[in-house]
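EI: anyone free to look at a 135-residue chain?
SC: sure, send it
EI:
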Amino acid sequence: MLSSLESCSVPLSYRIISETSMEETRPPVSDPVQVLKEEFRRHLETFYARLNLASPYESVEKAVRTLTTIVHALARDEQIRIVTDPAVQWQYFREAFETSGLVKKHRGIITGLVRDRAAVNLPVEYDHFLDLFRG
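SC: here you go
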């Protein structure tokens, strides 16, 4: 009488499972710089979309590069702190927005729009950008 393994026409295969430590099985930590770049870009897209303005693509990319340069200069612990603290994120986003020159794009239009903050369809966090357009 054949065993069930012998009767099977599929050849036997073996699976080798290596021993790994708990540290090796944890998912890798995301790159804080990449996380911040994506978050900043998303906020810039929202900013211009809610103001019904075309996003100045080249200037947005310059602002993202500026943020990248600023954050790359920081220690990894500080980068992680920025990722985990939205208030600190907005400080860095505002710095990149201003330093990159993005604040100069659509300046006249945005200055006119922010005269009546209630009419601007943006969450209060965006005041970090909008305050740069107020007299």
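EI: Residues 3 and 83 are 58 Å apart (CA to CA).
SC: 👍
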